[in-house]
Structure formats: C-alpha cells, structure tokens
C-alpha cells in the first residue's frame, strides 16, 4: 500500500512539476555524480544567487520525488498525509495561477536504482549539466549490474540536455571525461588538470594558531582566463572540497557572472552539515564531521585529509559501514582499513561491515590496543567521550543508515546544540 501511494504521489508531483517548468520556463542547472553533488549544488546556488533569483534542493532531496518537490517549492511530507495533500494542492495552484517563480533552478539529481535519472529526464531537460566525480566503485552499485551501469545512468542527465545545453565536467575524472568526449555539446572543464578551463591552482589548510595548531578552514586559489582568485572557506577541510567551488566558478563563467560577484559569494559560503565540517569538540578537541553519507572514494579522501592536517594531539578515525556496495563490500572495506592503519593513531569502527576495516587495519600493522570495534554509533560515542582530550582531531564518517552523527553529538563541545551543527536532527529522524 505504501509503495502504491508513493508511486501515485511521485506521478502526480512529477506531472505538476513538468507543467510548472513549461509555464515559468526557468533555466535548469542539474548536478550529478557519485560524490560531491550536494556541496557542488550549494556552491553553485551561492554563486548564481548573486545575480539571479534561484532555488536549490533542500539538503539532499535528489530523488524522483525530491526533484519535483524542489521545482514546486514544497517541503518533504515525511509521514504526514496533511503535508502531502498541501504539496499536491500547491503544485496545482502554481499551474493554474500566475505566481512569482525563480529564474534558475539548481537541481541535484541522484541515482539510487536503475532508471532513476531516466525517469526524471523524461520531463525535465536541463540547460546546464554539472558532472562532479565518479568513483570506480560508486555508492548504490549494489542495485546495478556493475559500476559501468551506474555511470550510464548518470550520463542520462547529459543526454537529456537542451539543444543549446552546456556540459560542465570535472577534468580530473577519467570516466566522465571519456563519456563527454562522445557528445557534441559546449563543454567547460574544471579541476587540477592543466587543461581545465577553471583551474585549481592551490589548496591549503588554514590553522587557528601555533599553540593548538588545529585546522579552521580551507584556502583555495582558482584561476580562469589567466585571472587568479583567492578564496578562504571557513569551517571545512579537505583538498577535494575545492572541486565544488571550481564547478561553481565554471557555472558562473557559463552564465557570464563577474569574478567580483562569484568571489564574494564563495567567501560567504556556509559549509553544509556533515560534509567535512569542522565542529568544536569536548576538552579542546576538534571534530571533522563527515557523517552525512559514505562511499569508498569519499572515505579515501577523508582519510587523506586526516593524514594531511597537523595537530599536537592524536588523529582518531571513526568509520562506519559503507552501505549498498554489494559484492564489492568486503574488498572496499578492507582497502579502507589498510589506509586507516597508516593515517590514524586510533581507529574506531562501527557496524557489521566495518569489522572488515578493523581486521584489515590490524593485518596492516595497527596495534590492537589502538583499534576498537562497536556494534553501533551510540556505543562508539559513549566510549569516545571518555577517550578524547585536548588537541585530538576526530574524523567521523559512515553511511547514512549508520547514524554516525550520534558519535558527533556525543563529542560536541558542551555549549553547542546538535540542531545547530549536525545532520539528521529533524523530528522524523529522531524517531528512527
């Protein structure tokens, strides 16, 4: 019954959204990839909003029901029939009466299962398609034939571009670059590659002071058309986070937004929760909160960042299961365990699949007295509250269903409220 109701709602909302697109004719910037979609979407929205009325998906509502909700300007109804009824009614009003409407929509589009993007692009044709990164073993691969099938689904977004559409693609991503080379469309590239239109010249970590030596943000140098721009983003860390900002500058270039405008927008950018966000922790520690979700390439980058940061305390990696990897799960968890053994002073693993991270790290040489395994995130948080001390840096990451934000909550500085800093603090999530 629930499945039938969801399908019916999705059909109604998608139909209304398609009519709204036809009526108001906003320009659509659609973002996809296996990692970095939400950060790119947020950075693009920050830049486009400097010159135009723009709307983006809230959080990561990037599904076949999340995209129509964004177009209609409606909230997620969760389990409330009243809210869903309101959403359908609002969609009808937008179609039947004239209302003010954004000039641009920045839509994150995900693919959890085969056909997800294809079903959306039957009625939504983007003007600009932004491709972030594909990993060799992407998240959700469990539901596809193989990784190439995931890539093919992502490329449905590009194939649906309007006749005069533009592709904005990560020049460092071999898989996406291979695919877009087959398509005759205008392309703007971004990345560390020397051939990139928007080039990432330099990425470095900024620190609080020499006494504690804790990271406080990221410094990024970008260049386009031989003009260099320096941007400092507070409260996040990680060289891979330069990609979303470079993608936003590529969009700015496509739209003719001036350097002074996009530079100002990026400097005022607010880091999204649960994505390599720096949060003050107990006893003078620092949490790198990357608890929103997880995939092999994302964990690799997060651990690489943990290795790069300097601190007088310990480096602690808290890693939960990476879900939906299917037959690749054991191998990918073992790879992470080996990497973590060389990066972290202490390794905390959470969940059944993460037992493979733990075992692999021990085999790779990590001392057993510096590794712990817990069945759930609450238990790990309880242990860590008594373990952390001044100067420690704690990286927290895991798939959404592992609820790793509960570890972050346990380690928050006493005066901070979880709802102001962490993901999944809504009432619906708290019930789960």
From TrEMBL:
Bilayer-spanning residue ranges: none
UniProt keyword list: ATP-binding, Ligase, Nucleotide-binding
InterPro entries for the chain: Mur-like_cat_sf (IPR036565), Mur_ligase_C (IPR004101), Mur_ligase_C_dom_sf (IPR036615), Mur_ligase_cen (IPR013221), MurCDEF_CellWall_CoF430Synth (IPR051046)
A Pfam family it matches: Mur_ligase_C
The keyword Methyltransferase appears for this protein: no
SUPFAM superfamilies registered for this protein in UniProt: MurD-like peptide ligases, catalytic domain, MurD-like peptide ligases, peptide-binding domain
Domain Mur ligase central: start-end pairs: 31-252
Gene3D superfamilies: Mur ligase, C-terminal domain, Mur-like, catalytic domain
Domain Mur ligase C-terminal: 274-399
An example molecular function term from Gene Ontology annotations: acid-amino acid ligase activity
Origin: domain of life: Bacteria
Protein known as: UDP-N-acetylmuramoyl-tripeptide--D-alanyl-D-alanine ligase
